[in-house]
Amino acid sequence: MRHVLALAAGLLLLAGCGQRELLRPPEGASLPPKPAMAATVPTPVELLTPRTDERPERSDELLTKSQERPDDRFDIPPPG
Fold it and tell me: Is the pTM of this model over 0.70?
């Protein structure tokens, strides 16, 4: 019974893979228009590649020294 379930699960996962192919606009459609400042129309790969400002690098700087927060005169309890 376990073999049958494992085989069924494997086939289901394999069927979900699908084939990857290059992206193309649908029949009768075209790529988005050329941006105003670009020299050429970007390709689908260029459109899908995030720029540095769209995906900034992570900063893993650790807190090196702790400091007490100064009193905040606007930090008041809720009314009631």
Answer: no
- The pLDDT tens digits for 35-80 are 889 888 888 888 888 887 877 777 776 667 777 878 888 888 888 8
- Sole residue written with tokens 């085989």: 7
**Which has the closest alpha carbon to 46: 20, 70, 22, 30?**
22
**Quick one: residue 25, left, alpha or beta (phi over 0 = left, psi -120 to 50 = alpha)?**
beta
Q: Per the structure block, which two tokens stand in for 80?
A: 């009631």
- Structure tokens that stand for 41 in this block: 């129309």
User: 42 with 35: CB under 8 angstroms?
Assistant: yes
